[in-house]
C-alpha cells in the first residue's frame, strides 16, 4: 500500500517548499508571504523505489474565519486521509500559540504525527529546535527544505523498508502470528502441530520424511489469529540425496523467513545434536524469534531428564533470552504454555520504541561504561532510533563507529535487551557515522588571505633564523 503523507503547519513555515523537494517538482507555488496555498494539493514522490503520496495544505492559525476557515477545513481533511502527518514549524520564529493549538489537534486525531523543524540553516539546529521539544512529539526531524537538507534521512526513517513491505504482503496472505515449526526429521513436528490445532490436520507417521512440503494452516485461538507452518525435517547436508528432499529443505528455510516466531523441536531421547545448533544458527541469521521445545519428555527417567536439561542449558547458554519448554506433543503436556512464549516473542519482535527512549538508554549505557579511545580520540555515540522490526533494528549514530569493538556492541545489545524487556527475539544494531561535509574539498584562499599567509611564513622564517644565530653565539 502506498503511504500518504500530509504536510500541516502555520502559514509560511515551508510546507510547499518541502512538498516540491519530496516530489522533485515545482508544482506547488512558493513565495515569501503567508496564505499562498489554499486548496490541498496532491503529488507523488519516490525514495529508493518506495512510492508515496504527499499532500500540501494551507496554513492553520486556530482562529480562521471566512476563506481561511475553508482552507483550514481542507487541511484537517488531509490529516484524516493521511497515514503519516508531518507537522512543520519555523525554527527561526520559535514556538507560537498556533503551533501548540495544531499539536493538540494532532494528538486528538490519533494519527502518526512527527514534528519537523524547518529553516534550521544558518543556525545551530539543536538550538533552533529546543523550544519545540515541549510539544511532546516522539520523533523530531531538523531540516532546511529550501536547501534540501535533512529530507533524505527523514524519508529513510518514515517510509517502510523493503523487508517491511514484504512483511505487509505476507500479512495479507497469512493473518495473525505466523509460527514456524522446524527441526530434524522425526522429532515430532507434525504431532506438535496437530496438538496445537486440536485436530489431526497433518499426516503423522513413525517414519522420517513424512512431511514433504511446508503447510500453512490459519486458525484462531482464544480470540487471537495464528498461522501454523508445518515444515519438512532438515538433515545434515551429506545425508540429503533425493531431489525432493532438497526442495523440501528449501521450503523449510523459506518458511523460517515467513514466520514471526520459530519453534525449534528437539528430540529429548537423542539430546541436543549439532544439526539442531545449525538450525538455530539459521533462525538467528534470519532474525526470527525463537522458542525451544524439547519433545518426547514423557516416560524419561529422572536421571536422563537431568542430563538433557544440563546439556541444553550448557550448549544453549548464548540463548539465555529464549524460552525453553519440555513437552510431550503426543500427550499434550506443556504445549499450551508455549502460546505465552509465542505471544511474548511476537510482541518483542514487532515492538515500536520512540527515538527519545532509545537515545536515553544509549546515553545511560555510555555514561555507565564509555566506549574505548581510538587514535587518541574517544568514540562518541550520540543518539539512537529504531530502523525496523522482526527483528528489531536499532540504528546508533556517532563518530568512529567502525572502530567500535565487538565486546562493546554486545554490551549495548545486552543493555537494550534488559531495559526494553526483549524476549526470544534477536536485536540487530546498525552503526552510522556522520560524514565530514568538508571531506575532499580544497581550501581556496582569497587574494587577501594569500598575502597574509605569505607574510606569516616570511615572519616565521625570520624568527627561526634569529633563534639559530642566537644559539650559535
Automatic annotation (TrEMBL):
Keywords: GTP-binding, Hydrolase, Nucleotide-binding, Repeat, Ribosome biogenesis. Residues 3-166, 177-350 form the EngA-type G domain. The keyword Thylakoid does not apply. It holds the Pfam family MMR_HSR1. GTP 2 binds at residues 183-190, 230-234, 295-298. GTP 1 binds at residues 9-16, 56-60, 118-121. Residues 441-458 have a biased composition (Basic and acidic residues). Residues 437-473 are annotated as: Disordered. One of its GO terms (molecular function) is hydrolase activity. SUPFAM superfamilies: P-loop containing nucleoside triphosphate hydrolases. InterPro entries: AAA+_ATPase, G_ENGA, GTP-bd, GTPase_Der, KH_dom-like, KH_dom-like_a/b, P-loop_NTPase, Small_GTP-bd. Residues 459-473 have a biased composition (Basic residues). Coiled coil: none annotated. NCBIfam families: GTPase_EngA, small_GTP. GTPase that plays an essential role in the late steps of ribosome biogenesis. Associates with the 50S ribosomal subunit. Belongs to the TRAFAC class TrmE-Era-EngA-EngB-Septin-like GTPase superfamily. EngA (Der) GTPase family. This is GTPase Der. The gene is der.
Amino acid at each position: 500500500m502506498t503511504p500518504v503523507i500530509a504536510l500541516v503547519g502555520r502559514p509560511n513555515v515551508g510546507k510547499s517548499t518541502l512538498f516540491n523537494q519530496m516530489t522533485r517538482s515545482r508544482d506547488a507555488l512558493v513565495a515569501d508571504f503567508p496564505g499562498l496555498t489554499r486548496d490541498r494539493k496532491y503529488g507523488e514522490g519516490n525514495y529508493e523505489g518506495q512510492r508515496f503520496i504527499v499532500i500540501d495544505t494551507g496554513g492553520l492559525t486556530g482562529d480562521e474565519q471566512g476563506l481561511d476557515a475553508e482552507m483550514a477545513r481542507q487541511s484537517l481533511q488531509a490529516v484524516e486521509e493521511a497515514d503519516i502527518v508531518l507537522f512543520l514549524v519555523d525554527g527561526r520564529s520559535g514556538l507560537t500559540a498556533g503551533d501548540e493549538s495544531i499539536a493538540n489537534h494532532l494528538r486528538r486525531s490519533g494519527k502518526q504525527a512527527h514534528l519537523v523543524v524547518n529553516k534550521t540553516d544558518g543556525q545551530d539546529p539543536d538550538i533552533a529546535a529546543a523550544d519545540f521539544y515541549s510539544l511532546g512529539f516522539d520523533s523530531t526531524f531538523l531540516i532546511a527544505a529550501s536547501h534540501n537538507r535533512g529530507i533524505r534521512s527523514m524519508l529513510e526513517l518514515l517510509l517502510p523498508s523493503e523487508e517491511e513491505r514484504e512483511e505487509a504482503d505476507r500479512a495479507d496472505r497469512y493473518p495473525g502470528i505466523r509460527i514456524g515449526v522446524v527441526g530434524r526429521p522425526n522429532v515430532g513436528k507434525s504431532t506438535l502441530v496437530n496438538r496445537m490445532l486440536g485436530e489431526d490436520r497433518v499426516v503423522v507417521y513413525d517414519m522420517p520424511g513424512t512431511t514433504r512440503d511446508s503447510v500453512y494452516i490459519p486458525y484462531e485461538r482464544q480470540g487471537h489469529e495464528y498461522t501454523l507452518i508445518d515444515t519438512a525435517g532438515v538433515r545434515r547436508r551429506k545425508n540429503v540425496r533425493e531431489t525432493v528432499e532438497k526442495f523440501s529443505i528449501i521450503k523449510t528455510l523459506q518458511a523460517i523467513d515467513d514466520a514471526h516466531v520459530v519453534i525449534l523441536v528437539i528430540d529429548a531421547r537423542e539430546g541436543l545434536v549439532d544439526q539442531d545448533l545449525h538450525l538455530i544458527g539459521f533462525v538467528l541469521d534470519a532474525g526470527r524469534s525463537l522458542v525451544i521445545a524439547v519433545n518426547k519428555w514423557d516416560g524419561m527417567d529422572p536421571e536422563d531428564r537431568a542430563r538433557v536439561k544440563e546439556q541444553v542449558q550448557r550448549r544453549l547458554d548464548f540463548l539465555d533470552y529464549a524460552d525453553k519448554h519440555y513437552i510431550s506433543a503426543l500427550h499434550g503436556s506443556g504445549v499450551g504454555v508455549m502460546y505465552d512464549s509465542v505471544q511474548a516473542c511476537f510482541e518483542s519482535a514487532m515492538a515500536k520504541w520512540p527515538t527519545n527512549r532509545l537515545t536515553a538508554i544509549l546515553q545511560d549505557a555510555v555514561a555507565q561504561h564509555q566506549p574505548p579511545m581510538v587514535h587518541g580520540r574517544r568514540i562518541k555515540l550520540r543518539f539512537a532510533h529504531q530502523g525496523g522490526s522482526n527483528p528489531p533494528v536499532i540504528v546508533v549514530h556517532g563518530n568512529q563507529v567502525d572502530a567500535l569493538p565487538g565486546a562493546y556492541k554486545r554490551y549495548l545489545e545486552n543493555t537494550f535487551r534488559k531495559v526494553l524487556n526483549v524476549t526470544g527475539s534477536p536485536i540487530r544494531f546498525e552503526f552510522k557515522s556522520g560524514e565530514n561535509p568538508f571531506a575532499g574539498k580544497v581550501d581556496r584562499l582569497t587574494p587577501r588571505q594569500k598575502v597574509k599567509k605569505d607574510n606569516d611564513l616570511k615572519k616565521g622564517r625570520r624568527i627561526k633564523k634569529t633563534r639559530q644565530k642566537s644559539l650559535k653565539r
